[in-house]
Design a protein that fits this description.
single chain; Arc Repressor Mutant, subunit A; 10 helices
């Protein structure tokens, strides 16, 4: 492997390219220690030490640090590691490490997320956000079936109460605007309009 690029990332860190491709990020002192020089060959021994010992250990510590601050998904951790210049081998090893100790569990993440946002976001919106975080649909559906979630209509009513102060002031245009706002947040049309009708009637038995 030939070192084809050494580019400063910070004053102390450098991105190293091998054979024309980004390989990893090292500290300045590590470049000299492992004989990483531009246009020179990097030995297999030094490459193995850098990736499987130095960077893998560093990646494990980094993900542990991230997980102590807040829950993360597998996809989130992988993306953060890659953005920080860790090679694929170090990323895989770090993820496997935290998974082996039960520190990383996408199903538990989905469970915590839904419990935290139940009654605040629509079910569709929560599903979409979890999918975006890299949690597969089967896991999401399994957790949704497991948990007893708030009736969607109650969540819609809370949104309406926040957005509207006086039902008598609502014009048809304002009603449509409010309905569109709720629809964009993933609520079903029937649920939205039923809640709006209840609000306009000011039916205290149905609208709490």
């Amino acid at each position: 492997m030939i070192v084809t690029g050494i580019t400063p990332v910070t004053k102390q860190k450098y991105k190293v390219d091998l054979d024309g491709r980004p390989a990893f990020v090292l500290y300045k002192g590590e470049l000299a220690r492992y004989d990483v020089r531009l246009e020179q060959e990097l030995t297999d021994v030094n490459y193995h030490i850098i990736v499987h010992e130095i960077l893998t250990g560093r990646a494990k510590r980094y993900v542990m640090h991230l997980l102590t601050k807040m829950d993360r998904t597998k996809k989130d951790l992988e993306e953060k590691l890659k953005r920080n210049g860790y090679p694929e081998a170090a990323v895989s090893a770090a993820i496997a490490y935290v998974e082996s100790y039960g520190y990383l569990n996408d199903k538990q993440y989905a469970r915590n997320y839904i419990q935290a946002y139940d009654g605040k976001l629509s079910k569709k919106q929560m599903r979409w956000k979890l999918l975006k975080k890299g949690i597969d649909s089967q896991t999401i559906e399994s957790v949704c079936e497991e948990l007893q979630q708030t009736d969607e209509s109650e969540t819609v009513r809370k949104y309406i109460q926040k957005k509207v102060k006086n039902s008598t002031d609502l014009t048809d245009k304002e009603l449509k605007k409010l309905a569109d706002y709720l629809y964009r947040r993933g609520f079903e049309g029937n649920t939205i309009w039923e809640a709006l009708r209840c609000y306009q009637r000011d039916d205290e038995d149905n609208f709490i």
